[in-house]
Amino acid sequence: MARALSDREKEIVVTEKRIVQSYLGKNFTVYEPVLIKVQVANGSNFLVKILVDNDEYIHVKMNIPPNYSKLEGQARLIFVHTGKTFDDKL
Prior knowledge:
- This protein is an alpha+beta fold.
- It has one domain (7-84): Nuclear Transport Factor 2, Chain: A (Roll), CATH 3.10.450.
- The protein has helices at residues 7-15, 17-24, and strands at 31-40, 44-52, 56-64, 76-84.
- The N and C termini lie close together (9 Å).
């Protein structure tokens, strides 16, 4: 079940913003993680609903390795789904 992000989860998702922007070829001025589902699998898989520009939401799945530190670029992007709304199931 989706839930609000902890401070640590939010910090990780925001730190990894650049890999999402690079994948989509966009630079977001708004990038606010709002909901998360976490699956433990060789680290953690984060499935996150993120509010971006123009009141649009994206769904991002990334793998966070068990030895993650605050260094950007350690997460592995699994997928990004665009064109989502707040009501779309995560």
